[in-house]
Amino acid sequence: MSLTSHHQGFTLIELVMTIIILSFAAMVVTSAITSFSHSSDAVLREQATSLAQAMMDEVLAKKWDNTTASGGGPIVTSETITGSRGTDGTRIATITAALGPETAAPDNENATADDRSDWNDIDDYNGASEPVGGFFFDQTGSQLPNTFSGFSRTVSVNYIASNAPSIDATTPTSATTATDSKRIVVSVSSPLGETFTLVAIACNF
Fold first, then answer.
1. Strand 129-130 with 152-159, pairing
2. Alpha helices by DSSP H, 61-203
3. Rounded Cα distance, 205 and 192, in Å
4. Fewer beta carbons within 10 angstroms: which end of the chain, N or C?
5. For each of the chain's 205 residues, which pLDDT tens digit applies?
């Protein structure tokens, strides 16, 4: 008596179905890995825009110029009394328009952005750059949480004529032809190599 054993392999249809299922599974896994690897990008972009917006809000809350009132008004850099007082009791003075913008720490304030507690006007922020010593700071000089590694933040302030055709127009070298408006640019670079820029115009009206 002889025993015969039969070995049955995979059919062609079974092989094709297996390949299709494995391919689909590979696509799902690859998609999940890609999504996971890029999930931090959105967080980094959010941090960059938050850094930029926080600085812009801080700058816009300051006086237009060191010699103007908080609500704006004439820029006084010198005053010459030409008489005792006018008929209405006010002093008779000569007011000279300021030339600028001011440079960093123009009024003997702290020169670097790690302590902005005495930066009281928009021009004080011109040239501000962070991080300082590897850290970012708020306007009181308090160090922000160490969650911004790889970021950088800069501020520039320039005079611009209110009747300029574009806020990107060439800026006058002095305020003699543009004394009423300033362009504030806050730029933040992220670890992704992207730069996020906010631009605002502050007017002295």
1. antiparallel
2. none
3. 40
4. N
5. 555 555 566 677 877 888 888 888 888 877 766 555 555 788 899 999 999 999 999 999 998 877 776 666 655 444 333 444 445 544 444 434 444 445 445 566 778 888 898 888 888 898 899 999 999 999 888 998 888 889 999 998 887 776 666 666 555 544 455 567 888 999 999 999 999 999 998 887 6
Instruction: Please indicate, yes or no, if residue 191 is contained in any of the structural domains.
Output: yes
Domain count, the chain: 1
Establish if 34 belongs to a structural domain. no
Q: Strands, E, within 41-134: which ranges? A: 79-81, 93-95, 129-130
Q: Is residue 25 part of a domain?
A: no
- Per-residue 3-state assignment (H helix, E strand, C coil) for 138-153: CCCCCECCCCCCCCEE
Is 1 domain-assigned?
Answer: no
Give dist(CA 94, CA 143) in Å, integer. Answer: 44
Residue 1 gets which letter from DSSP? Answer: -
